[in-house]
Design a protein that fits this description.
alpha/beta; six-stranded parallel beta sheet; 24 helices
């Protein structure tokens, strides 16, 4: 069978194929792959970089400073784009590749699409062992890239140039599938990248991908309607899948019309604004007391687009033992959890069909009235916690209150691990939909600044105009782990505002440690093995940021911070603001958490903590 072919190296063919993939966002046809974050080494510089250099005006390559952080930037980009557009992260072999494994874990846990491409060792094995090769004596084909298997939705190693004909379309299909969405990894052995092959011309034809919206089965919709009609005190939990489906407005309207209070998971926060009439705040351990009280008395829990992580469910201690679950999810795995009535399909499609079948059913008004009273009480507590005091060092809540007030509706708050997840989930009042990103699926310290770069890139149009800025809130611990993308944004011209809260170490883990009865140890600087524990050296974060080309100020007070935020909004580059914060004051509220506490111990404080855990576990629902 004869057809037109074009002779290209495998690396050239891969790049050409990626350049010809498109998608639609809000009616506009755009490249599916918006660009490449790359760090070149001997495993990809001679062949892959040669191919990328030829198309740099079509598929821009951005220089990373660290493979993990550039891949985390790709994760942030995917989240900002609501999984509709994808960035590529390309590394060399060995440590360059393994640096990206953590970022792959972030994408996998959060169900976000990222294409990871790493160099690999030689298939022919003639020069073995090569630079950066890890040898497995009984398994010569094993390389460090096999480490991506457990954190990838799609994994392949190209051992013949023809294999990309099937591998690349399958990788894209996986990344765009609402149920299977996650990172795709492709390993490129150095000797295969160089090989020329006669590829069918039609392989490179332009294609516009459409993200599928699977509809639910009629029987599952009928079962959902039957359950909902029995509900007296229902509660909606809105997850990240609601945002990725674009079901925000419909679910909020459904909640209002049907009289069902609506809460959000950490990934779902930002589906609606803070003062939406049906909204009662975030759900779970990092959530509001209003949501917790409603969850404890809910007879039917409608979980939409959420995997029901332990921080949402309070380790499954938040709900009544006889509460029934209606799980609406694109993934059957998630829809079937905890003996739920499953409705498998796209969130918007499922909600639309359930709504149409419900007829005139509406929950008794008492449920929404109770919810609104509880939420009003919560908001008064937030106001009190954010109010300025005479304390020498402000709390997280006070800092967040200032930053939140000074943020514009088009700005996006970005944070991740540490104390800021709980504090922002409770204290940040979302002003516009899809302007809040808390990475807490993998709880990755170091995501904040890197993810902020991805968000800034996603906010930048083709003509270079940036609409809104990411406001990155980061603790001193996370800043020390990964900060080089401050420099990346200065180089690339993507602006963000970074607020560094310095509480003298790993404050929230110190809180958990001491809360479970263990004396403070190796978390706060003063409790670590340091030269001067009474006055340990603190980093001058503002000076450090200025050394990377950013604008920066250290703030002595909340008033200073407010003025600095106003100044930062007007600067022409990434701007870093630093402020000392209290490591001991936390916003109360939310559900409890199941953690391991020593079963036997000589300390009374630990024995007391163990008793508390044993009491909590008696409330735990048993389910899969």
């Amino acid at each position: 069978m004869s057809e037109k072919t074009v002779r290209l190296t495998m690396a050239q063919a891969l790049v050409r194929y990626l350049c010809n993939q498109y998608t639609e966002i809000d009616g506009e046809r755009v490249p599916l792959f918006a660009g490449v974050f790359g760090i070149f080494g001997h495993g990809n510089v001679t062949c892959l970089s040669e191919a990328l250099e030829q198309v740099q005006d079509q598929l821009p390559t951005w220089r990373g400073q660290n493979e993990q952080s550039m891949a985390l930037a790709a994760v942030g980009f995917a989240k900002a784009k609501l999984r509709r557009q994808i960035m590529i992260a390309a590394s060399s072999v060995g440590p360059g590749a393994t640096n990206m494994i953590t970022a792959a874990g972030v994408a996998h846990a959060n169900r976000l699409p990222v294409l990871l491409i790493s160099g690999d060792t030689f298939v022919n094995r003639l020069p073995d062992p090569v630079l950066q090769q890890v040898e497995h004596f009984g398994s010569p084909s094993t390389t460090v890239n096999d480490g991506f298997r457990c954190v990838s939705r799609f994994w392949d190693r190209i051992t013949h140039p023809a294999q990309i004909l099937s591998s690349l379309p399958q990788a894209i299909t996986t990344m765009l599938d609402p149920a299977d969405c996650g990172p795709a990894f492709i390993g490129l052995p150095q000797d295969i990248q160089e090989i020329a092959y006669d590829y069918p011309e039609r392989f490179f034809a332009e294609k516009t991908w459409v993200i599928p919206r699977p509809r639910p089965s009629r029987s599952e919709v009928a079962a959902a309607v039957e359950l909902l009609r029995t509900a007296k005190t229902p509660l909606i939990i809105s997850g990240g899948g609601v945002r990725y489906s674009g079901a925000n407005a419909f679910l909020a309207d459904f909640a209002t019309r049907r009289g069902i209070p609506m809460t959000e998971t950490i990934a779902g926060k930002g589906a609606v604004v803070h003062d939406h009439p049906a909204y009662v705040g975030a759900m779970g351990i990092e959530g509001t007391d209003a949501a917790k009280d409603l969850a404890e008395t809910a007879d039917v829990v409608i979980a939409v687009g959420t995997r029901m992580q332990d921080f949402t469910t309070g380790s499954w201690t938040t709900f009544a033992s006889d509460a029934q679950f209606l799980n609406i999810n694109a993934a059957r795995f998630d829809a079937s959890k905890h003996r739920a009535v499953p409705v498998v399909g796209d969130a918007l499609e499922c909600l639309t069909e359930i709504d149409a079948a419900l007829g005139d059913w509406r929950c008794d008004a008492a449920q929404m009235n109770r919810a609104q009273k509880l939420y009003a009480t919560w908001n008064k507590a937030l106001d009190a916690g954010q109010a300025a005091t005479n304390a020498a060092v402000p709390s997280y809540a006070q800092v967040i209150g200032v930053v939140n007030r000074m943020a514009r509706p088009e700005d996006t708050m970005v944070t991740a691990a540490g104390g800021l997840p709980g504090e922002t989930a409770k204290n940040w009042r979302v002003k516009a939909p899809n302007t809040y990103d808390l990475e807490f699926g993998f709880s990755c310290m170091g995501y904040e600044i890197a993810g902020g770069w991805g968000h800034a890139m996603a906010k930048t149009s083709a003509d270079g105009t940036q609409t809104g800025v990411p406001i990155v809130m980061v603790g001193d611990g996370s800043y020390m782990m990964m900060n080089s993308d401050i420099y990346s944004t200065v180089l690339s011209g993507h602006k963000m505002i970074v607020v560094v809260c310095d509480n003298g170490g790993f404050g929230v883990i110190n809180r958990l440690q001491t809360g479970m009865g263990v004396p403070g140890f190796n978390n706060l600087l003063k409790d670590s093995r340091v030269r001067n524990p009474d006055n340990p050296l603190h980093v001058d974060f503002a000076a450090h940021a200025r050394a990377m080309g950013a604008e920066a100020r250290h703030c002595q007070s909340l008033g200073d911070l407010e003025a600095a935020m106003e100044w930062a909004q007007g600067t022409d580059r990434t701007t870093v603001l630093t402020i000392d914060s209290d490591a001991w004051t936390w916003t109360p509220g939310g559900a409890d958490w199941y953690v391991g506490v020593p079963e036997i111990n000589q300390r009374e404080s630990i024995r007391d903590a163990r008793k508390g855990q044993e009491a909590l576990r008696k409330k735990q629902r048993q389910g899969v």
